[in-house]
Amino acid sequence: MVTAAADLPPTMPQVRGRLTRSASLAPLVWFKTGGPADWLFEPADVDDLSAFLAALDPAVPVWPLGLGSNLIVRDGGMPGVTVRLGKPFAFARTSDDGVTMTCGGGTSGILVASTARDAGIAGVEFLRSIPGTVGGFVRMNGGAYGREVADVLTACVVVLRDGTVQPMTVEQLGYTYRHSDLPDGAIVIEATFRGTPGDPAAIGAEMDRIAAEREASQPLRSRTGGSTFKNPPGHKAWALIDASGCRGLTRGDAQVSEKHCNFLLNLGSATSAEIEALGEEVRDRVKVQSGVTLEWEIQRVGLK
C-alpha cells in the first residue's frame, strides 16, 4: 500500500514520491520470484531522494533496484528500503558538441542507444543489448560485444547513503571487469557518456545486428536473469557450463537454458531458492570438471 503521512513510523521521513510498505518485488524482477521489500521508495526527483536518505536512520539498509534483470531477490525479501528510480530519472539528452550525452539513472540501455543513434553518436550501440538501467550498468561496468561502460563513461552523479549528492569521474569508479568502486549505498542518478560522430543509418544497422544476434542466441522471451556467471580469464562461462553437462539441468522449476547455458530460467513456479541452488550446483559441477570456479554475475540480494 502507499502510505499516508499518519501511517509512517517514526523512523520513516516524509516524501513527495511514493513510499510503499511490504511491497511485492517479484513483479519487478525478470525471474518473477522473491519476497517483498520492507519499504519501496520511488522518489519524485533528486531532491526528494537526497532529503529522504539524509533523514533516514543510518542503520536502515538502502538498496537500489533497476529493471530487475540481472538479479535474484531471495524469498525472504529485502530488509530496509529499496529505491526504484522511475520516470523522473529516465531521460537521455545530447549535448551541443555532438558526441556527449547525459542520461538519468533510471534510463534503459535501449533508450540511451536509440537517442545516440538519432543524434548520430556512435560507440554506445552495445548498450542496446544490456537489459538494465544506467544506474545498474554504471555500477557493474556492464558490457557486451567487446565494449563496456568504462569505454564510454566520462562521469556520473550519485546520491550517497547520507543524502549527499556527489559527482564522480570514471577514474574514481576504479572500473575492472563487471565491477566498480562505487561506495556502498550510493545510487547513480545521472551519467555522462561520450561517443564519436557517426551516421545514424550505420548506427541503427549495428543496433539491429546486435538485437538479431541476441534474439538468435539468448532466451530473451523467458523468465531469466540474463548472463549468470562472469567469464573467467581465458574462458567463456557458457562453454565451461556446457562441458560440465549442465545444459538443460533442472531443480524444481528452475532450469539451465538449453539455448544459452549461461542463462538460468524460471519455467513457471520456481522459487528464488531453487534458482540460486541450481546456480550453485552448476558452479560445483564446473569446478569438478574444469577446476575453474565460476563467479556470479547475477546479483543475489535479500534474506533466504
Throw out a few tags for this protein.
6 helices, disordered N terminus, 5-stranded antiparallel sheet, 304 residues, globular, alpha+beta, 23% helix
Question: Can you walk me through this structure?
Answer:
By secondary structure, the protein is α+β, with helices and mostly antiparallel strands. 23% of the residues lie in helices and 26% in strands. The strands form 6 sheets. The chain has a 5-stranded antiparallel beta sheet. Helix 2 runs antiparallel to helix 4. It is globular, with a radius of gyration of 20 Å. The two termini are 24 Å apart.
Q: What shape does the CA trace take?
A: globular
Compute the separation of the termini in Å.
24 Å
pLDDT < 50 stretches: 1-6
Secondary-structure content class: alpha+beta
What letter string, H or E per element, gives the SSE order?
EEHEEEEEHEHEEEEEEHEHEEEHE
- The mean pLDDT is 94
Number of helices: 6
The amount of beta strand, in percent, is: 25-35%
Gyration radius (Cα, Å) is 20 Å
Adjacency order of strands in the biggest sheet: 6-7-13-11-12
Quick one: biggest sheet? Answer: 5 strands, antiparallel
Helix content: 10-25%
- Number of DSSP strands? 19
